[in-house]
Each structure stands twice: as C-alpha cells, then as structure tokens.
Specification:
Elements lengths: L2 H14 L7 H15 L7 H10 L17 H15 E3 L8 E5 L5 H10 L5 E5 L2 E6 L2 H10 L3 H18 L4 H27 L9 H12 L5 H7 L6 H16 L3
Helix pairs in contact: 2-4, 4-5, 6-7, 7-8, 8-9, 8-11, 9-11, 10-11
Length: about 260
C-alpha cells in the first residue's frame, strides 16, 4: 500500500485518538468496535493499544461488552470509530476515494453493515481469504464516514484535496469542475461552521482569547466566504495564513468537546 495512503489513514487515526470521549457508553463503544471487528488475539498498533488503555481508565468501561446493545446511532458512531481504528484505512483523496474495513470476525460483519446502512453509507463487500472487506468508494460517502467517526479535521482535508483533484482532472470540463468545486468548498464550510457554532454555544466560548472569538464571529457571520476573504474581514485584517491558523485552532478546541 502506498506510503501516502497509509499516511492519510494514520492521520485520521491520530485525530480520532487525540481525545477520550466524556461518556462511558462512548468509550465502551470504541473499545467494542476494536475488539469485535478484529478479535482479542490480533495485535494492535502501539498507539491504538495506548488509546485503549486510556479508554479503560473510565469507570465501568471494560474490554468487552454486548454488541446487541448497539441500536442507538449516537453510540454506533463510536463503535464505527473503533472498527476504523482496528482495521480501517483510507486512500489519500488526491489519488482515490476509498475506505476499507478489514473485519476478521465474521459474526461482526452484519453488525457493521447494519450500522453503515442506517447511516446512509453505500458500501460493497468482498472476501479475501478469511478477511471480510467492506469498502466505500463514493467520495460523498467517504466524506460522510469520516464525519461519523469524528475525523472532522481530516474530513475538511479530504474535501479540499477532493476539490483540487477534480480541478486537475477535469481541465476540459472547466465549468462543471468549478461548480463541483464550489459545492465541495461549501460542504467543507458547512462542516467548519457546525463545529465552530457548537464551540461558541458551549461554556468554553467564554474563555477563548479575543482574537479567536473575533475569528469565530467573522466565520459564522460570513458562511460563504473563503479563508482569505474571512481574513480581510477581521479587525484589523489579517492574511490567509493567519486566518487559517485561527480557524484550525477553533476547530481543534471544538473537537475537544466531544
């Protein structure tokens, strides 16, 4: 597998392992997704093992529970997060749109399939030896899956690379490409606005530095503006790089509220 594909996958996993959910049920869901998709005997990467240990510090969280409990979409997203941590990878979107889940435990396959279907994610399945592979190849659904498992920053990265790839790959269809690019930029902006809105509605908003509060205000008041345009609307105006830094900081803080 190409290094850049593995790098993109590792970055997704690093993002979703950065924070431990506040609720016991969410932590348990992640562990169950890891264990049920790969089995207890499979050796996990060191960073995943360390993350499991962090999750297990939560009261009433154990290494195994009952998959029959997973009927609530609010918990399912954490289960799918665990599945991805254990046995998933995502292609670099500059090369292809593809997520694969390599599930060793055959009895867990219908559980994951049901969760993906309930989330509106289209997928296909294949058998490679004794490994069941569920793969997603729709760009829209890859993006949706990243949102479901909580990889919001990499989802933004995915959408940006997706837009760039479309521009480079469709030179002869400029008008259609511009339309698709605008749509994806709008989708990325919607994800950004959703996270920042959540942050500003939380108690954490009061403790934000003035420059971050101003950046959040400008962003929410101008949902269709580009990063460069948002920077010009700041008081005083700042460059694209400076505005992007503040937006990314807001998104990181918003993610920590999970």
């Amino acid at each position: 597998m190409p290094d850049n594909e593995m790098s993109f996958s590792r970055e997704i996993k690093a993002e979703i392992m950065k924070h431990v959910p506040k609720h016991t049920e969410s932590c348990q869901g992640i562990i169950d997704g890891i264990v049920m998709s790969s089995g207890l005997e499979r050796e996990q990467d060191d960073d995943v093992v360390e993350y499991i240990e962090r999750l297990l510090t939560k009261e009433d969280v154990s290494l195994y529970s009952d998959a029959a409990l997973y009927k609530d979409n609010g918990i399912n997203r954490y289960f799918l997060r665990g599945v991805y941590l254990s046995c998933g990878y995502c292609s670099d979107p500059s090369l292809a749109y593809r997520i694969e889940l390599h599930i060793r435990e055959s009895w867990a396959v219908p559980i994951v399939e049901d969760m993906l279907s309930e989330a509106g994610i289209s997928f296909r399945t294949s058998l490679r030896g004794d490994i069941h592979v569920l793969y997603i190849t729709s760009g829209d659904h890859v993006s949706d899956f990243l949102g479901i498992i909580g990889a919001d920053l990499k989802r933004l990265d995915f959408e940006n690379k997706r837009a760039e790839r479309d521009i480079m790959g469709n030179v002869t269809r400029t008008l259609n490409c511009d339309s698709g690019n605008t749509k994806r930029q709008a989708e990325a902006g919607a994800v950004r606005n959703e996270l920042i809105s959540k942050l500003m509605a939380s108690p954490e908003a009061a403790s934000l530095p003035a420059e971050l509060r101003e950046a959040a205000r400008v962003n929410l008041e101008n949902p269709g503006a580009s990063i460069a345009e948002l920077g010009k609307l700041m008081d005083p105006p700042i460059g694209k790089s400076g505005m992007n830094h503040r937006i990314q900081k807001l998104l990181e803080i918003a993610k920590s509220l999970d």
